[in-house]
Amino acid sequence: MYRWWVFLHIVGVFGFLVAHGVSVAITFQLRTERDPRRIGDLLALSGSSIRAFYVSLLVLLLGGVVAGFLGEWWSEGWIWAALAVLILTSIAMLLLARPYYRRVGLVARALAGGSEAVSEEEFDRILRSRRPITVAVLGFGALLVILYLMMFKPTLGLSASTTSDQEPGQVAVAARNIAFDTDRLSAPASQPFTIAFDNQDAGVPHNVSIYPQPGGAQAFQVFVGEIITGPDELTYEVPAQPPGTYSFVCDVHPVQMVGTLVIE
Ligand SMILES: [Cu+2]
Fold first, then answer.
1. How far apart are CA 15 and CA 13, in angstroms?
2. Label partner for 85 (CA 20 to 30 A): which of 62, 65, 154, 160?
């Protein structure tokens, strides 16, 4: 299900880019166009693409929001940041672009109607405004930021896996997309602790085992966790360990799934 909602989200993105590409192309065409009638036609064409643009935006938002719930991403910073960038950029672009289009349309209609209230030079100056470039750079920059947030998923200090709100002696870690959701865990020294393990990978076996690091406090494997196939959860009971730096590893994927466990 999750992949289908991401699929829908990306379909929305394609529609969004195609529909808005019409407006972008026309905006730059306007800078070289001086015939008021042609300009009126171009503005009408741009306006006609706006509906497809808003429909795509809705599909994009719907797919993204639902996928966010299914993937349990709403507890992480990147998805909120991406949504904020989308909303704020949309508002900024609307506020910057709308007066420009409105003025060009108004003047083009007046000139086409034979009005002489606006001179050719003034019309030229309005059409040569740098406003469209500002809007395009803003939009493209925001797309790059959102793409970065979606690809790299930085938690931005907001993550369900932060151990700060856990009681001492309770450690939580999740596996998703053949990766642990954190590369650093900490546990108290010289007392037993639990590891609440959440395997979110459907059909994929994972576990959590604890190994000493070279030169660490223990010479032998400290703990071997039972392997569970996701989606499944299990709480491991780990016996007391001396303070030191250890590795926590999934024995099924020891290369991709490894992190540092600090016992202090
Ligand atoms: Cu694994």
1. 5
2. 160
Ligand 1 centroid, distance to 10 Cα (angstroms): 28
Q: What spacing in Å lies between the alpha carbon of 197 and ligand 1's midpoint?
A: 12
H-helix or E-strand spanning residue 202: none
CA of 162 from ligand 1 middle (Å) equals 20
Task: Mark whether 11 and 136 lie in a shared domain.
Answer: yes
Calculate how far, in angstroms, residue 221's C-alpha sits from the geometric centre of ligand 1: 18
239 within domain boundaries: yes
Instruction: Let me know whether 91 and 127 are in one domain.
Output: yes
Range of the domain at 183: 163-263
Amino acid at 134: T
How far away, in angstroms, is 6 Cα from ligand 1 center? 23
Distance 57 CA to ligand 1 centre (A): 37
d(CA 120, CA 110): 12
Q: Output the CA 29–ligand 1 centroid distance in Å.
A: 53
pTM exceeds 0.70: no
**pLDDT reading at 220 higher than 80:** no
Residue 117 lies in a domain: yes
- Total structural domains in the chain? 2
Ligand 1: centre distance to CA 206 (Å): 4
Residue 240 C-alpha to ligand 1 middle, in angstroms? 24
Quote the ligand 1 centre to 181 CA distance (angstroms): 12
Per DSSP, 164 falls in state G
Q: What tens digit of pLDDT does each residue of 28-79 get? A: 898 888 888 899 999 999 989 989 999 999 999 999 999 999 888 888 899 9
Q: Tell me the per-residue pLDDT of 130-173, one tens digit each, with 9 for 90 and over.
A: 888 999 999 999 999 999 999 988 888 776 554 444 566 889 99
β pairing state of 170-175 and 228-229: unpaired
